[in-house]
Amino acid sequence: AFIALRQLLDHAAEHGYGVPAFNVNNMEQIHAIMQAAEATASPVILQASAGARKYAGEPYLRHLVLAALEAHPDIPVVLHQDHGASPSVCQQAIRSGFTSVMMDGSLMPDQKTPASYDYNVEVSRRVVDAAHAVGVSVEGELGCLGSLETGEAGEEDGVGAGGKLSREELLTDPEQARAFVEATGVDALAIAIGTSHGAYKFSRQPTGDILAIERIAEIHERLPNTHLVMHGSSSVPQEWLEVIREYGGEIPTTYGVPVEEIQRGIAHGVRKVNIDTDIRLAMTGAMRKAFAQARSEFDPRQALKAATAAAKGVCVERFEAFGCAGQA
Ligand code: G3H
Ligand code: 13P
Ligand code: ZN
Predict the structure, then answer these.
(1) CB-based contact 113:124 (threshold 8 Å)
(2) Which of 63, 104, 160, 305 places its Cα 20 to 30 Å from the Cα of 49?
(3) Please, which domain of life does this record's source organism belong to (predicted)?
(4) Domains in the chain, number
(5) Ligand 2 atom with least separation from CA of 276
(6) What is the position in ligand 1's atom list of the atom closest to the CA of 276?
(7) Does the C-beta of 234 come closer than 6 Å to ligand 2?
(8) What is the bridge-based pairing of β-strands 44-48 and 19-23?
(9) Does residue 111's CB lie within 6 angstroms of at least one atom of ligand 1?
(10) pLDDT value of position 147
(11) 291 sits in which H/E element
(12) Mutate to test the pocket of ligand 2, among 233, 270, 272, 281 (most ligand atoms within 8 A of CB)
């Protein structure tokens, strides 16, 4: 059944676990996540970007999610708009049946140009007013996602924000976070603590200080009732990179956020953990391998089945690692 993000994350906070929020674009990804949730008795956050709605088409995406609910009546499901670029994108999502929307007012509607604090407050508050009136939850974002290793802002929806930033500029300010939530009433807040979007997060094997974990605690202290969200949380599994390379892919050396770091984040107050890249890497690796190993095969279902199984494996691991397993 559908539930609102607020409801699910309140439960997660009460019981001290984190919920992976997986991006979905097609049936195979939804199959994989729901099978993993069923296998581990986990609640689910399916999130769709503007790009996902464009790829699948809004009615297809909506009906695929409705099909998931019908096939798995006992699994609580949040359908969340990822990185809403404007209040009107969030309105469309609400009309389309989403139970949660992200208003990403940290960037202007082009989702490249950093926005002012006042703009962010204004658009986020407007979305909260409209969403709460119909029982839909809202996630806001405050801060500029980017790697503490390089000082470079990460990709927001595939487009580099560009420019070198100092450590302070790359971290969400705790006092500003408190004021932002007071002014907007968002249910969840995405914070910048050193993660970035995409596969290229860190060029060296990360050590324990790759994220500003203490910053999470500082923000959580001031916002005990607002659920913190970690974007750019893919771990970039080295074993899938190796499969991709072995079967003809070209992905340079790169590292993601170690699962243990995410676990530390959850212990300090993170409740929603956004993951897209890991599923992309697993599916791509599995498809490359399937095509290469059965060269006369031309039924695409063989490769797609392998991709679904690979994505399911990633999801099971994250549900278990984040303490989400058994909470449905
Ligand atoms: O944060 C971005 C997500 O990974 C979605 O990416 O815009 O290519 O669907 P997308
Ligand atoms: P990754 O690119 O690390 O999977 O992050 C996805 C994300 O934050 C979607 O909003
Ligand atoms: Zn994101």
Answers:
(1) no
(2) 305
(3) Bacteria
(4) 1
(5) 4
(6) 4
(7) yes
(8) parallel
(9) no
(10) 81
(11) helix 277-293
(12) 233
- The pLDDT assigned to 315 comes to 99
* pLDDT over 90 percentage in the chain: 91
CATH of the domain at 306: 3.20.20.70
Q: Give the integer Cα–Cα distance in Å for 285 and 65.
A: 25
Tell me which residue of 219, 253, 226, 237 sits closest to 310, measured CA to CA: 237
From the list 319, 274, 270, the residue with the least C-alpha distance to 80 is 274
Partners of 20 in the beta sheet?
A: 273
Domain-located, residue 43: yes
Cβ(157) – ligand 1 distance below 6 Å: yes
pLDDT at 143 over 50: yes
Average pLDDT, the chain: 95
Ligand 2, atom 9, lies closest to the CA of 274
Q: Distance, CA 22 to ligand 3 centroid (Å)?
A: 10
Q: 231: CA distance to ligand 2 center in Å?
A: 5
Q: Does any domain span residue 151?
A: yes
Residue pLDDT, tens place only, 15-73: 999 999 999 999 999 999 999 999 999 999 999 999 999 999 999 999 999 999 999 99
Write out the residue range of the structural domain in which residue 202 sits. Answer: 5-321
- 8 Å CB contact between 299 and 55: no
Which residue puts its alpha carbon closest to atom 3 of ligand 1?
157
Residue 159, strand partner residues: 156
Mind listing the pLDDT tens digit for each residue in 205-249?
998 888 999 999 999 999 999 999 999 999 999 999 999 999 999
- ipTM of the complex in this document: 0.98
Mutational test site, ligand 2, from 231, 259, 280, 314, max ligand atoms within 8 Å of CB: 231
Looking at residue 154, its pLDDT comes to: 57
Q: Is 82 a catalytic residue?
A: yes
